[in-house]
Amino acid sequence: xxxxxxxxxxxxxxxxxxxxxxxxxxxxxxxxxxxxxxxxxxxxxxxxxxxxxxxxxxxxxxxxxxxxxxxxxxxxxxxxxxxxxxxxxxxxxxxxxxxxxxxxxxxxxxxxxxxxxxxxxxxxxxxxxxxxxxxxxxxxxxxxxxxxxxxxxxx
Length: 155
Fold this sequence. Notes:
It is built from four helices and nine strands. It is an alpha+beta fold. Strands 1-5-6-7-3-4-2 form a seven-stranded mixed beta sheet. A two-stranded antiparallel ribbon has the order 8-9. The longest helix is centred in the last third of the chain and has 9 residues, at 145-153. The radius of gyration is 19 Å and the shape is globular.
C-alpha cells in the first residue's frame, strides 16, 4: 500500500497573525500544524476541497499522508499521521488539523478505536434480550507504520 498524497502550502507571516485562521477558512483552506521528530513545527494550510476528497471513504486512524510542500522554492515531502482534527460542532466544518511527522522505519505510538461488529446478532443480545457492555473503547499500539496500517485493515 502506498501513502496518500496531499498537497499543502506553507502559511506566510500574514496568515499567522491574529484572526488569520478565520480568513483562511473563509477562503476555503484549513489551517494546520505539522510537528514531531525534533524538527520545528511547521504551519501550513490545506485546501478544504482537496482534504475532503482525500479522506472520503477512508479511516482516519490509519491514514498515512505524504504532505507535499513548497518551502522557500524547494519541494519537500513530510510523511505524517493525523494526530487531531478539530471540527465546528454546528457546521461540522474542519477548523484545524494537527499532523505528526513519522518515519516509516521507526515505531509509532497510536490509539486504535475498538468497534464491535454484529453486536445485535449475538445470542445473548438477540435471543435473551441482553445488553453487550465493553469496557475498552480503544487500545494503545506501538508498531511500525506499515504494520499498523495492515493490522487495522484486516478484520
